[in-house]
C-alpha cells in the first residue's frame, strides 16, 4: 500500500529539469539488484533498508527527490525523511514510468 505522502515531482518533470542541466539531488531507495539493472545517472543509491544508518550522507539544507520502482517505497521514505526535517519530494510511478536516460551496473 502506498504511503500518504503527497509532495510529488512527476518523472516527466524530473526528466525535463535534468535535460535543462539542473542539478537535482535524487535518491534511489531500491534494492541493489534493482539499482544495478538500471538507474538514473548520477543519483545517490540509498536502499530503503539502510537509509536510517546512512542519514549522515544527506544534507538537510538541500532538497531531495526520492525514487523507487513504483513510488511506494519512495513515498514511505519521504514521509520518514520529512519527519526528520528533510525537504523531499516523491517521484510517483518511479522507474516504471521513467523515460529518461538509464545506466546499468554500479
TrEMBL record:
InterPro entries noted in UniProt: GlpE_sulfurtransferase, Rhodanese-like_dom, Rhodanese-like_dom_sf
The entry's keywords: Transferase
GO MF: transferase activity
Keyword Transferase: yes
Ranges of residues in domain Rhodanese: 20-104
SMART domains: RHOD
Protein name per its UniProtKB record: Sulfurtransferase
Organism of derivation: Paenibacillus agaridevorans
